[in-house]
Amino acid sequence: MTEATILIIDDEPPIRRLLDITLSAQHYRVLETGSARDGQIAAAMHPPDLILLDLGLPDEDGQALLLKLREWYTKPIIVLSARNAEDEIVRALDHGANDYLTKPFRTGELLARIRSALRSARQEENTPVRQFGHLHIDLVSRQVRKHDEIVHLTATEYALLLLLIQNEGRVLTHQFILNEIWGAPYSNQSQYLRVYIGQLRKKIEENPNQPVHILTASGIGYRFSGNSL
């Protein structure tokens, strides 16, 4: 099996070296660039399976590059940046980033996020059945089972769960979820979303107070993890 190719777009040589060593040790094929221009060219000439993108690039802001890449590049993009302001993170996620880690980052966590993003990308869009530990979701019959017992979800709860699993591993902002499920008039009703997330956790999680599937990205949104502890 051919290992995934990961493109690093970061202007800091020490970071690129660290990532190269870490990813190569996990048998990923690594491509490196240090500018937005070179990153865009590399992505177009040798399309990778995943991009690690820094926002503080010397020739163009990474947010602008992210928007350009998302005009045609459909595979995962994970932002690695020293910028930790909430509005910066939300903007990157709304621009199409699958995930966002702030520097300095833990390599173990980064590798887990990469595995999750790649696994989600490899899922066939028309896969009729999804299995996540004790959860069994049949997309054709719209049936959800937990330990082989049917879980009764409302239409809204099912739509919310479907949106989350279709974006497995990606942090979805509050506004994005609200727009997708309830529409633009509800885009600022984050408390509305919290109620439904709470209800959904009670139905599908083993322990709703310590969820392993529907995870909170504090102040930003939610992420679905297919892993189970």
Name its key features.
single chain; alpha/beta; Arc Repressor Mutant, subunit A; 2 domains; 5-stranded parallel β-sheet; 4-stranded antiparallel β-sheet
Describe this structure as you would to a colleague.
This protein has 229 residues and is α/β, with parallel strands linked by helices. It has two domains: 5-122, Response regulator (Rossmann fold), CATH 3.40.50; 129-224, Winged helix-like DNA-binding domain superfamily/Winged helix DNA-binding domain (Arc Repressor Mutant, subunit A, Orthogonal Bundle), CATH 1.10.10.10. It is 40% helix and 21% strand. The strands form three sheets. It has a five-stranded parallel beta sheet with strand order 2-1-3-4-5, with helices on both faces. The longest helix has 16 residues, at 107-122. The protein is globular and about 50 Å long. The chain starts with a strand and ends in a 5-residue tail after the last strand. The mean pLDDT is 89.
Helical/strand content category: alpha/beta
Largest sheet: 5 strands, parallel
β-sheet strand percentage: 15-25%
What is the share of helical residues? 25-40%
List the strand order in the largest sheet.
2-1-3-4-5
What is the terminal separation in angstroms?
Answer: 27 Å
The total of beta strands comes to 12
Show unreliable segments. Answer: none
**Individual helix count:** 8
Q: What is the CATH homology-level superfamily of the largest domain?
A: Response regulator
Mean pLDDT: 89
Q: Which geometry do the CA atoms define?
A: globular
CATH architecture of the largest domain: 3-Layer(aba) Sandwich
- CATH domain class name of the largest domain: Alpha Beta
User: Please, how many domains?
Assistant: 2
Indicate the radius of gyration in whole angstroms.
Answer: 18 Å
Q: How is the CATH topology of the largest domain named?
A: Rossmann fold
Order of helices and strands: EHEHEHEHEHEEEEHEHHEE
